């Protein structure tokens, strides 16, 4: 078992208090990590503040070179890192490698970006420049509830922050698709990382003309998916990551059972797991819109399939949520797909694909799914302030 340390101001530092890291696939302790006390926290912040000055004044090319180097280190050690991710988080080795690959792409994509000075105005007498200067930013990814607490804490010092929070992302399926062909892609849109992904499809609205066939094909495909220890290369889904999250997902299953919702698949799980935090893929068949599984985010392998008939109706229902992270629309009629997509209240809407996070485009939530964005040039801008520089070319004192 590995005993880890903090790294504060470039030095290894331990703490009296420690926390066990549990492998969710077998409930075995795999590591001990230190819990910082307030003095250590203050020391780390002070060191970061000192480093920030020298780092932020470096040329962009120098900072980019460091990001490229970090990406190469991850790439060179991906075999070891994916083992760590899987043992700690439960995700499959394939999913861990995909995540690390996305990390590498994000680092390199960001390193390629530049924020040059802009000349806003210039004549014989005056020159006005706009430049971007780095600032300290609180960048948080997590639940909306926790994000509100982070925002409240940051308000006292007017800290700049970006919040990438929860979602209840809708996927809308038009009546002209072939259910047998679209099922695999929509399954993974919903159950990527076992549903423990902020931008996963968490409500699938299927037109009534194809609903029954789609549901049957979806269930048929789901039954072919193997859930097991992520270290097993044959596993396609792993366990839920921790006990609290396991209990949360169980509460959604229990609520649907208590309200007599129909499960097209799954819906049976132990409330007290002992040999791993495994929950079978569970699909709720057309529950009412006011139900917990439709309104709230479970963050796990349970999904409602919902029937719709009129375009205006499904748009209204898709938007009837406090969240607005991402969404997707699927259909052969691309005009209809785009027409619907433009009316969805979400930061990113995918059309006939599922790839809401791309290193070139901004990713951020509407409504209570967040503030600010990450990725792309707009993501980089979120970590800067505007500075205006004015130069009077012929001052009177010269």
Automatic annotation (TrEMBL):
One of its GO terms (molecular function) is oxidoreductase activity, acting on the aldehyde or oxo group of donors, NAD or NADP as acceptor. The keyword Phosphoprotein does not apply. Its EC number is 1.2.1.-. The active site is at residue 164. PROSITE patterns: ALDEHYDE_DEHYDR_GLU. Keywords: Oxidoreductase. InterPro entries: Ald_DH/histidinol_DH, Ald_DH_C, Ald_DH_CS_GLU, Ald_DH_N, Aldehyde_DH_dom. Residues 133-388 form the Aldehyde dehydrogenase domain. It is an enzyme of class 1 (oxidoreductase). Belongs to the aldehyde dehydrogenase family. PANTHER family: ALDEHYDE DEHYDROGENASE-RELATED (PTHR11699). This is Aldehyde dehydrogenase. It comes from Thanatephorus cucumeris (strain AG1-IB / isolate 7/3/14) (Lettuce bottom rot fungus). The gene is attK.
């Amino acid at each position: 078992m590995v005993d880890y340390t903090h790294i504060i101001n470039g030095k290894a530092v331990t703490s009296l208090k420690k926390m066990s890291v549990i492998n969710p696939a077998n409930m075995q302790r795999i590591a001990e990590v230190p819990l910082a006390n307030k003095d250590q926290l203050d020391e780390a912040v002070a060191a970061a503040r000192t480093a920030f000055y020298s780092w932020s004044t470096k040329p962009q090319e120098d900072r980019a070179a460091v990001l490229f180097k970090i990406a190469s280190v991850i790439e060179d050690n991906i075999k070891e890192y994916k083992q760590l991710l899987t043992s700690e988080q439960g995700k499959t080795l394939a999913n861990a490698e995909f995540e690390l690959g996305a990390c590498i792409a994000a680092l390199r994509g960001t390193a390629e970006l530049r924020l040059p000075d802009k000349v806003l105005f210039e004549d014989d007498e005056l020159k006005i420049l706009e430049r971007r200067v780095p600032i300290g930013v609180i960048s948080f990814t997590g639940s909306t509830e926790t994000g509100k607490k982070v925002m409240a804490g940051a308000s006292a010092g007017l800290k700049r922050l970006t919040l990438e929070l929860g979602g209840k992302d809708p996927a809308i399926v038009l009546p002209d698709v072939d259910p047998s062909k679209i099922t695999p892609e929509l399954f993974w849109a919903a159950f990527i990382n076992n549903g423990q992904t902020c931008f996963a499809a968490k409500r699938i609205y299927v037109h009534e003309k194809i609903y029954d066939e789609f549901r049957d094909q979806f269930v048929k495909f789901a039954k072919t998916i193997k859930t097991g220890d992520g270290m097993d290369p044959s596993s396609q889904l792993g366990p839920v990551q921790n006990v609290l999250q396991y209990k949360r997902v169980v509460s959604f299953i229990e609520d649907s059972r208590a309200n007599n919702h129909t499960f097209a698949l799954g819906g049976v799980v132990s409330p007290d797991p002992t040999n791993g935090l495994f929950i079978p893929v569970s699909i709720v068949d057309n529950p009412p819109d006011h139900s917990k599984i439709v309104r709230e985010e479970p963050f796990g392998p349970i999904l409602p399939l919902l029937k719709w008939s009129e375009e205006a109706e499904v748009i209204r229902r898709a938007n009837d949520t406090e969240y607005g992270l991402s969404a997707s629309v699927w259909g052969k009629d691309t005009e209809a797909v785009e027409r619907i997509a433009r009316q969805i209240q979400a930061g990113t809407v995918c059309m006939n694909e599922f790839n809401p996070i791309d290193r070139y485009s901004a990713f951020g939530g509407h409504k209570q799914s967040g503030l600010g964005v990450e990725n792309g040039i707009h993501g980089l801008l979120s970590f800067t302030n505007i500075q205006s520089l004015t130069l009077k070319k012929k001052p009177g004192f010269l």
